[in-house]
Amino acid sequence: MLKVYGSKMCPDCRNCELNFNKFNIEYEYFDINESLKNLKQFLIYRDTKPEVFERLVKIHDIGIPCIVDNDDVFTDWEGYLKKLGHSDLEYEMGEACSLDHKGC
After folding, report:
1. Domain ranges of the chain
2. 20-23 contact pairs (CB < 8 A, 24+)
3. Are strands 27-31 and 66-69 parallel, antiparallel or unpaired?
4. pLDDT confidence band for 42 (50 / 70 / 90)
5. How far apart are CA 18 and CA 10, in angstroms?
6. Number of CB atoms found within 10 A of residue 55's CB
7. Strand ranges in the chain using DSSP code E only, listed in sequence order
8. Which residues lie closer than 8 Å to 23 by C-beta, 6 or more apart?
9. pLDDT tens per residue across span 47-104
10. What are the φ/ψ torsions at residue 42 (nearest 5 degrees)?
11. Strand partners, 72
12. What is the reported pLDDT for 104?
């Protein structure tokens, strides 16, 4: 089963969750704002998988949602769903979470 590390405050995380539910993707959600244990586990992935997070860190992105599938760690939930044949993705409109308010 997939593990998703994210935050209910993050529009991209909410959209990931919305679409995983829509397409009946089994996952367990770990909100990094709800417990230090969840945050610490996410940071371990971020700190030990530079090939996944390096680009995101350079643009001052947190790197969530972070999806873990056994040993595979990725952040492109849209690409993951498209690989499974799901192209009709849904998006909720919400407040941007970047410092410049142009995205996440």
Report:
1. 2-83
2. 20/77, 20/81, 22/90, 23/81, 23/84, 23/86
3. unpaired
4. very high
5. 12
6. 12
7. 2-6, 27-31, 66-69, 72-74
8. 81, 84, 86
9. 999 999 999 999 999 999 999 999 999 999 999 999 999 999 999 977 666 666 555 5
10. -60, -45
11. 69
12. 59
CATH of domain 2-83: 3.40.30.10
Residues forming beta bridges with residue 2, ordered by sequence position: 27
Dmax (CA) of the chain: 35
Give me the residue label for tokens 């970047």: 98
Asked if 104 and 11 count as a contact pair (C-beta separation under 8 A), the reply is yes
> What's the token pair of residue 16?
């990931």
pLDDT of 98: 62
Task: Please give the structure tokens belonging to residue 90.
Answer: 């849904």
Other CB atoms within 10 A of residue 48 CB: 10
